[in-house]
């Protein structure tokens, strides 16, 4: 399968899965989840769905577990909406990139403040 086709399928899956979570999935364990990206294999058999969940670590794991439980339903909906004979097998993964970026930002601010205080103290 061409790389461009795989990228298009990934983007469409991201949109559709986000819509399914918002409108069709009524599991209270999911919480406030956002699909950040979808990586589809070249043969369109497997897809890693990265999800960011708002809340503490204790709230994130049950949300990802609930999504994994509902993967069959979500897969069927994706196949129906994208008119695919076979939709990729979905594997949900927690995406911590937002938290990591916030941590790096805090570290950089701290370093910047320390450097300013050294300049002002000299």
From TrEMBL:
<dbReference type="Pfam" id="PF02033">
    <property type="entry name" value="RBFA"/>
</dbReference>
<dbReference type="InterPro" id="IPR023799">
    <property type="entry name" value="RbfA_dom_sf"/>
</dbReference>
<comment type="function">
    <text>One of several proteins that assist in the late maturation steps of the functional core of the 30S ribosomal subunit. Associates with free 30S ribosomal subunits (but not with 30S subunits that are part of 70S ribosomes or polysomes). Required for efficient processing of 16S rRNA. May interact with the 5'-terminal helix region of 16S rRNA.</text>
</comment>
<comment type="subunit">
    <text>Monomer. Binds 30S ribosomal subunits, but not 50S ribosomal subunits or 70S ribosomes.</text>
</comment>
<dbReference type="InterPro" id="IPR015946">
    <property type="entry name" value="KH_dom-like_a/b"/>
</dbReference>
<keyword id="KW-0963">Cytoplasm</keyword>
<dbReference type="InterPro" id="IPR020053">
    <property type="entry name" value="Ribosome-bd_factorA_CS"/>
</dbReference>
<keyword id="KW-0690">Ribosome biogenesis</keyword>
<comment type="similarity">
    <text>Belongs to the RbfA family.</text>
</comment>
<protein>
    <recommendedName>
        <fullName>Ribosome-binding factor A</fullName>
    </recommendedName>
</protein>
<dbReference type="InterPro" id="IPR000238">
    <property type="entry name" value="RbfA"/>
</dbReference>
């Amino acid at each position: 399968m061409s790389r461009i086709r795989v990228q298009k399928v990934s983007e469409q899956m991201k949109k559709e899965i986000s819509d399914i979570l918002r409108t069709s999935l009524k599991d209270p364990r999911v919480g406030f989840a956002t699909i950040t990206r979808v990586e589809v294999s070249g043969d369109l058999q497997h897809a890693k769905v990265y999800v960011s969940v708002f809340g503490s670590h204790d709230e994130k794991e049950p949300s990802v577990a609930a999504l994994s439980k509902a993967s069959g339903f979500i897969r069927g909906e994706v196949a129906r909406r994208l008119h695919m004979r076979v939709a990729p097998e979905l594997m949900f993964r927690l995406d911590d990139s937002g938290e990591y970026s916030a941590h790096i930002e805090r570290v950089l601010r701290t370093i910047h403040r320390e450097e300013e205080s050294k300049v002002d103290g000299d």
